[in-house]
Structure formats: C-alpha cells, structure tokens
Amino acid sequence: MDVLRIILSVIIPPVGVFLQVGIGLQFWLNILLTLLGYFPGLIHAVWVILRK
Q1: Collapsing DSSP states into helix, strand and coil, what is residue 22?
Q2: CA 43 to CA 19: how far, in whole Å?
Q3: Which of helix, strand or coil describes residue 23?
Q4: How many CA atoms lie within 13 A of 39 on its CB side?
Q5: Each residue of 3-47: pLDDT tens digit?
Q6: How far lies 32's CA from each of 2, 4, 7, 46, in Å?
Q7: How many whole angstroms separate alpha carbon 20 and alpha carbon 49?
Q8: Which is it for the CA torsion 17, 33, 50, 52, positive or negative?
Q9: Burial 17-48 (b: 16+ CB within 10 A, else e)
Q10: 36 alpha carbon, distance to own chain's centre
Q11: pTM exceeds 0.70
Q12: Distance between CA 13 and CA 20 in Å, rounded?
C-alpha cells in the first residue's frame, strides 16, 4: 500500500499525504510546501508516508 501512496505522491504530493494521515496539520503543511515548490512537497510527502 505504501508503494501506491508514494506513486500518487510523485504525481500529486498532497494526495499521498491525505491517504496516509487524512485532513490534518501534515496535509495542510504539504499543500503549502507544494505551492511553494513541487520538490519540497514531494520530499515532505515521502517523509510522511515512510515515517509510519
């Protein structure tokens, strides 16, 4: 399941975070990071997914 989340995170980082933790602080932080730049959002998304 984590592989699917990581693949979705490569396409749209907030989707992978949403599937991992739902709507919460990490989700909104990832949206902000993705708006500031694709790679910060991607790195954060992979970190959130692999952390658990």
Answers
A1: coil
A2: 16
A3: coil
A4: 0
A5: 999 999 999 999 999 999 999 999 999 999 999 999 999 999 999
A6: 22, 22, 20, 15
A7: 6
A8: negative
A9: bbbbbeeeebbeebeebbeeeeeebbebbbeb
A10: 14
A11: yes
A12: 11
